[in-house]
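Narrative of activities, Objective 1.

The group set out to show that a structural description can be obtained from nothing but a protein's sequence at a throughput compatible with the screening campaign. Below is one input-output pair from the validation batch, recorded exactly as produced.
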Amino acid sequence: MIMERTGKVTRTTRETDINIKVTLDGKGTANIDTGIGFFDHMLTALSVHSGISMDISVKGDLHVDGHHTVEDTGIALGQALAAALGDKSGIKRYGTFYIPMDESLAMTSLDISNRPFLVFNAEFTNQSCGGYDVCLTEEFFRAFAFNAGITMHINLMYGSNDHHKCEAIYKSCAHALKEAVEFTESGKTLSTKGVL
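Output recorded for this entry:
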């Protein structure tokens, strides 16, 4: 019987108070409250499309701006994912996915390798979508990738609407993650070294 792969993180600083629980083999059930409506929308897409159930509660210093809330959520979510994966043995490890969102097209390719890295190629037209500064998209994924131990390449191929661009990025990451966290048929670690 396979044990439930879950990770929980509580992270409290002078800037944010965060509680996160992820269940990798859940049903993509999302309970998200960060205080930033558009960010909640993106994290909900990340949960639903990856099939990873996420409970995320964040209280941040939004009177300053959204930076600490978004980046710290990425840190804690990455830590929770890493905890849920444990030693990462037996997972497919790699995932690549393209997502079209109306006129926008984004691709994420990732490797859950314990070698964190982020390549992020995306340009936005406006400063924000709702109360979410679109420049924080890169900050979120950098914090997430580095704390989860993921090599992640995100490329926005094209697009004109910033809402669609962001959503395509988050959803492409979700589907790439869904592929990568699945178990291999052999159950063996997918590495010539024998460990990740």
